[in-house]
Inverse folding.
């Protein structure tokens, strides 16, 4: 009996992106001589994109009409005598999203790797602006509304990762990784203040300059034997922002003026860093009983120097303001778990976790304060204690019944004055029950029900109390949640299988005021059916459809007090998606395949008046988004280990999103996108496999 | 801005270098002695040539590493001694009691235990406590041990594996506002450790925010003026798997903001496209963020109200 793992299918699209066509597919089929040696492949060719686009190439760099180089390699060599591996992998080398990795190791002894990755992000909206200095911390804004040329905002990350590992004596090992990431570019940002000028709002475009370095260093010692495993070490992170603030020249000086309304400069994220020591482990007390734990202590600091008084003028700073915040957050984590099978049919698991995020940033009175702010900075501490306990028991016919309880408690600090109602403690308890059948030839699946209740300490009122205390914030409000999940897998025959998944959730929020405003109810539904069909050893197909929707009902009150208009929003996001995939090898020298995916997404905002003062609540238009992608490839073998590959992609993006369509910044900046974007891509490449 | 980060980098690299020198000079671990089983590979590959080929090319098939199955009974190391009887009886699913990882009659735990007998350490320490283990997911549910290319370990193809079960995430990853998952630049395992962890949602770090900070460290602060939910959990406002609203927001402004904020002045205003003045522009463009641009917090120390309200 000959079994071929290559013909196993999965319930999903076989290829997710155009780039997938240039990567895995080359490695998936090895037609090389020696079946015991690793194989390598290289490919090179040309691709062509037939139109400028903002969505198709948003993260790949295939965003402009024209030709692109298609180049990749996966070279793997092993010296059988020593276990020495050398691997070079390059992907999308002709694109702005290129990746390269070099691995060198002596298996079972030591190894290291160098990994480089570029990740562009092109802003999907075209920015027409007369603002200059974009990408720097000094920008100049026209003083009057001025039309400007089209500008493509872009951010790019360049990431370099180094890794090393070494097997040590006595079952010990050491691993270290260091990652350096440079991020550059500019992104949408703005400033605004009250009023309206010339029929426009008082908003100006102040693109945020991005020029930062992120570093992560991790070094870990590990120990492993049959029963005990330990891992402990250091993890450090470092953020360095080259730009301290956006300094603005020009702009509408009538609107943005004076000590309180200048809104210049705008501070940018400060440098910060963190250092964590951690140790975790597991011990198998018996073959069926295991305990695990993790202990960690971290200190995060933020000591970046403030903007100076001169830089902030004419806006004043408090007397004696320190040079920097002196931010410090210490986090302590302790976790332990136990899993056991005390009887052949009974399994139990217990887990307890404690995390204390203690914000030790010193208080300073940065401003005179007011009714909602006492002038001090506001450190945020939170302590989380959670636990899980569940038990599973095997029933006849391979069914398994599981019941469990989850508990989560959060304790937060609060400041003396608040702009929203607050709650220091929330507690949530969830009860789970599930029936699962995993061990069966034809039909497996699970049915689960979860009910959870969240409540907490008394709400702390806003300041001033007279204009608040009507909305319980969504993450603090009393909530009852019910969830049902059903999964059925049906292996009808060796060749055909179906998978059905459905889940539904409902959240009921309690309101804290007779007006009934705030979050009220949330709902989510997901249904999907996947099918897999092996037509023959040469042909396989997949198909899936899914429907997903989330809804949130919430009410609001216009203005302070209780006499204003009360309005409701029934927010709904729904999507219908489908996918089809086909792979075939009609001849020994030809492979073909195709994938089609389609998504139809709708956002609805369902606004209406539900009470209070008279008034008109105008509806908001729905937003519809449709995405279609067709990918086809053919791989023609000229020889057993080389050939030509043809790829074709059709991508269509359609939207009636109104987010920016009627908006013009006071300086004249506009953001637009083509409502329908169609892109055709064709690529031809030559591949060669070798050992 | 401090002038010392590069010095800190050099210092960190120096420490790393010293550690590397230390461990590189240490002797390699003594390999486990082979149990002396005769490898039946030649027998097995008569029927399972593709499995054999994938195995022989892999780390498992590397004979120079004495820890591998290649030195511990070959196919028997994972499939059990019963594989011999299986072969003697002419093969067939489950014949002879061979442990088949595609055999649906074999409990998940039994399959995983085979892999964990060698791979329990490191990132898999917490496996038994994970949601995957509890849900009867096995190592072979995701990993293709015999394939030359394991989809689960390639960022480009990993989602094909994860979406096999996580259908709702498959749909969300196709929303207009998303991480570059389709392009293979961000994979599920950048944020999640599917083998389990000490934190929530099987995240690679101990909590949601620390996971997000691995790429978005600028949001960490702390700041002079902090936004409470930002400090508590990024996922209160963002859905990292994909949404319709820009910046992966769960809902657009003002609706998102109104889930916590109420009107002391303008916060309860009706969402509208028609008003482009003052606080009426709460829906178009960036919505509430048209003014409150520093929504993650600001480190501006000035003593005016618009710093307090995240405007500068």
């Amino acid at each position: 009996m000959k079994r071929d793992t290559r013909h196993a299918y999965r319930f999903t699209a076989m290829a997710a992106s155009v780039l997938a066509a240039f990567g895995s597919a080359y490695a998936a089929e090895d037609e090389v001589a020696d079946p015991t040696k690793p194989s390598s492949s290289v490919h090179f060719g040309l691709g062509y994109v037939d139109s400028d686009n903002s969505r198709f190439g948003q993260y790949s760099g295939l965003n402009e009409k024209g030709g692109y180089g298609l180049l990749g390699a996966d070279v793997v060599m092993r010296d059988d005598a020593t276990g020495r591996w050398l691997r070079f992998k390059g992907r999308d080398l002709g694109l702005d999203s290129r990746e390269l990795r070099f691995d060198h190791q002596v298996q079972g002894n030591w190894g290291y790797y160098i990994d480089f990755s570029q990740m562009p992000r092109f802003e999907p909206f075209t920015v027409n602006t007369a603002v200059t200095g974009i990408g720097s911390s000094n920008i100049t804004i026209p003083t009057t509304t001025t039309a400007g040329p089209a500008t493509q905002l872009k951010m790019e990350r360049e990431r370099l990762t180094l890794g090393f590992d070494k097997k040590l004596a006595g079952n010990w090992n050491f691993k270290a990784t260091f990652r350096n990431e440079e991020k550059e570019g500019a992104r949408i940002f703005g400033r605004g203040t009250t009023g309206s000028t010339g029929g426009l709002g008082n908003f100006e475009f102040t693109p945020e300059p991005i020029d930062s370095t992120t570093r992560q260093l991790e070094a870990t010692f590990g120990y492993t034997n049959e029963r005990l495993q330990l891992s402990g070490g250091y993890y450090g992170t470092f953020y360095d922002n080259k730009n301290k603030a956006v300094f603005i020249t020009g702009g509408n000086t009538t609107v943005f003026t004076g000590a309180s309304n200048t809104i210049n400069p705008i501070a940018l994220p400060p440098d910060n860093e963190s250092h964590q020591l951690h140790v975790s482990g597991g011990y198998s007390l018996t073959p069926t009983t295991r305990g695990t734990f993790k202990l960690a202590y971290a200190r995060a600091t933020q000591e970046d120097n403030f903007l100076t008084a001169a830089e902030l003028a004419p806006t004043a700073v408090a007397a004696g303001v320190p040079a920097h915040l002196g931010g410090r957050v210490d986090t302590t984590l302790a976790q332990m778990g136990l899993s056991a099978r005390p009887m052949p049919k009974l399994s139990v698991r217990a887990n307890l976790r404690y995390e204390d995020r203690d914000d030790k940033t010193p208080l300073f009175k940065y401003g005179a304060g007011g009714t909602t702010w006492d002038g001090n900075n506001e450190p945020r501490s939170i302590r989380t204690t959670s636990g899980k306990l569940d038990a599973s028991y095997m029933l006849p016919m391979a069914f398994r019944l599981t019941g469990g309880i989850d508990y989560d408690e959060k304790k937060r600090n609060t400041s003396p004055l608040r702009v929203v109602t607050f709650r220091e403690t929330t507690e949530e308890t969830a009860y789970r029950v599930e029936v699962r059948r995993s061990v069966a030839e034809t039909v497996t699946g699970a049915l689960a029900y979860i009910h959870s209740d969240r409540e907490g300490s008394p709400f702390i009122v806003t300041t001033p109390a007279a204009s608040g205390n009507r909305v319980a914030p969504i993450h603090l409000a009393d909530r009852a949640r019910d969830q049902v999940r059903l999964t059925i897998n049906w292996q009808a025959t060796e060749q055909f299988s179906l998978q059905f998944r459905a889940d539904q959730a409902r959240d009921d929020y309690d309101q804290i005021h007779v007006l009934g405003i705030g979050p009220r109810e949330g709902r989510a539904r997901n249904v999907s059916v996947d099918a897999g069909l092996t037509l023959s050893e040469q042909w396989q197909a997949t198909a899936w459809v899914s429907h997903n929707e989330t809804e949130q009902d919430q009410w609001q009150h216009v203005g302070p007090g209780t006499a204003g208009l009360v309005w409701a929003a029934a927010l709904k996001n729904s999507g219908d998606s489908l996918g089809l995939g086909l792979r075939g090898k009609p001849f020994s020298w030809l492979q073909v395949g195709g994938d089609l995916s389609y998504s139809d997404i709708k956002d609805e905002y369902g606004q209406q008046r539900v009470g209070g003062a008279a008034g008109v609540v105008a509806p908001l238009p729905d937003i519809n988004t449709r995405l279609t992608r067709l990918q086809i490839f053919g791989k023609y073998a000229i020889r057993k280990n080389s050939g030509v590959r043809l790829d074709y992609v059709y991508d269509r993006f359609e939207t009636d999103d109104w987010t920016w369509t009627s908006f013009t910044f006071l300086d004249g900046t506009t953001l637009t996108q083509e409502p329908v974007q169609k892109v055709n891509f064709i690529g031809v490449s030559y591949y060669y496999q070798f050992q | 801005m401090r002038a010392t980060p590069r010095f800190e980098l050099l210092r960190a690299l120096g420490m790393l270098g010293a550690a590397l020198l230390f461990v590189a000079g240490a002797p390699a671990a003594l390999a486990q002695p082979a149990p002396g089983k005769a490898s039946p590979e030649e027998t097995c590959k008569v029927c399972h040539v593709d499995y054999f080929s994938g195995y022989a090319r892999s780390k498992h098939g590397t004979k120079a590493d004495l820890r591998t199955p290649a030195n511990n009974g070959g196919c028997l190391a994972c499939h059990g001694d019963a594989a011999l009887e299986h072969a003697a009886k002419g093969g067939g699913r489950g014949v002879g009691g061979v442990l088949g990882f595609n055999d649906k009659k074999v409990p998940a735990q039994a399959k995983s235990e085979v892999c964990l007998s060698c791979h329990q350490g490191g990132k898999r320490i917490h496996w038994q406590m994970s949601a995957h283990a509890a849900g009867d997911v096995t190592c072979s549910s995701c990993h293709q041990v015999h394939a030359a290319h394991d989809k689960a370990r390639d960022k480009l193809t990993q989602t094909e594996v994860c979406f096999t079960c996580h259908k709702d995430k498959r749909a969300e990853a196709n929303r207009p506002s998303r991480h570059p998952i389709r392009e293979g630049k961000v994979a599920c395992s950048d944020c999640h450790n599917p083998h389990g962890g000490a934190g929530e949602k099987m995240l690679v770090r101990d909590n949601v925010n620390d996971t997000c900070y691995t790429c978005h460290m600028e949001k960490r602060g702390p700041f002079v003026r902090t936004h409470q939910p930002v400090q508590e959990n990024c996922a209160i406002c963002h859905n990292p798997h994909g949404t319709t609203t820009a910046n992966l927001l769960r809902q657009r402004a003002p609706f998102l903001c109104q889930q916590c904020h109420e009107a002391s002045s303008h916060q309860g205003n009706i969402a509208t496209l028609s008003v482009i003045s003052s606080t009426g522009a709460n829906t178009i463009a960036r919505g509430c963020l048209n003014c409150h641009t520093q929504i993650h917090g600001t480190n501006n120390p000035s003593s005016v109200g618009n710093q307090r309200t995240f405007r500068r």
Summary: Chain B touches chain A through 159 residues (CB under 8 Å). The two ends of chain B are 17 Å apart (CA to CA). DSSP finds 14 helices and no strands in chain B.
